[in-house]
Amino acid sequence: MSVKIRLQRHGKKQRPFYWIVAADARAKRDGRFLEKLGTYNPNTNPATIELNLDQAVQWLHNGAQPTETARAILSYKGALLKHHLDGGIRKGALTQEQADAKLAAWIEDKAGKVDAKKEGLSKAQIDAKAKALKAEKVANEKRINAAADALKAAEAPEVVEEEVVEEVAVEETPVAEVATEEVAVEETPVAEVAAEEVAEVAVEETPAAEVATEEAPAAEENNETTEA
């Protein structure tokens, strides 16, 4: 029987969650399996992988062939390295202690890389959140300034109209007053001049009458003298 180590899909729509299983190569992908070796969750960053290392290596020893994705997962968790080191032990190329030391050093180095990646991702997420918050603040300030400008623009015409009305009232009032004053100034001297002219006429007429009166006695005297 040909055995494969592959992924069996579980989870919800658009949020897959996989089991790592050893199954008959003739079985359906999501059908029956021989043994569950671990889980793989690609929804996290980095992906979360849980693997029974010893059982996975044992299936590799028994000739199970991993699929491409399963091979990448087994390599990521060190199963392929352990399988290779066990082969070296069987051949006598190295001892069990040496193989365990190499595997432990590799796992420690891998864990350091994973932790560094997680820290980098956390820092990137923090920076992204800070940048998004700053952009949101700038957008809010622009929106507030735009609303204030719109309010000022809406109030400006009313103020202009009030100023125009006040200016017109201020301009019309002095014109009326000036016109009244000018009429008064112009009419008053005319009346006074007319009165003065009448007085002058009276003055001019009075001496003529007096002269006539004076001339009359003089004529009478002359007549009396002639008769005498």
Nearest-angstrom radius of gyration? Answer: 61 Å
| Broad structural category | alpha+beta
Helix and strand string, N-terminal first?
EEEEHEHHH
Distance between the termini: 197 Å
Strand content: 5-15%
Strand order of the largest sheet: 4-3-2-1-5
What are the segments in which pLDDT stays under 50 over at least 5 consecutive residues?
Answer: 183-188, 201-228
What spatial form do the alpha-carbon principal axes imply? elongated
Mean pLDDT reading: 75
Largest sheet: 5 strands, mixed
Task: Work out the number of β strands.
Answer: 5
Helix percent reads over 70%
Number of helices: 4
Write the layout of secondary structure elements.
Blueprint: E1 3-12, E2 15-24, E3 35-41, E4 48-51, H1 53-61, E5 65-66, H2 68-77, H3 79-91, H4 96-227
Parallel strand pairs: 1-5
Antiparallel strand pairs: 1-2, 2-3, 3-4
Helix pairs in contact: 1-3
Summarize the structure.
This protein is an alpha+beta fold and 228 residues long.
Account of the 3D structure:
- The structure is a single chain.
- This protein has 228 residues and is of the alpha+beta class.
- The protein is built from 4 helices and 5 strands; from the N terminus they run E-E-E-E-H-E-H-H-H.
- A hairpin with a 6-residue loop joins strand 3 and strand 4.
- Helix 1 packs across helix 3.
- It is elongated and about 95 Å long.
- The relative contact order is 0.05.
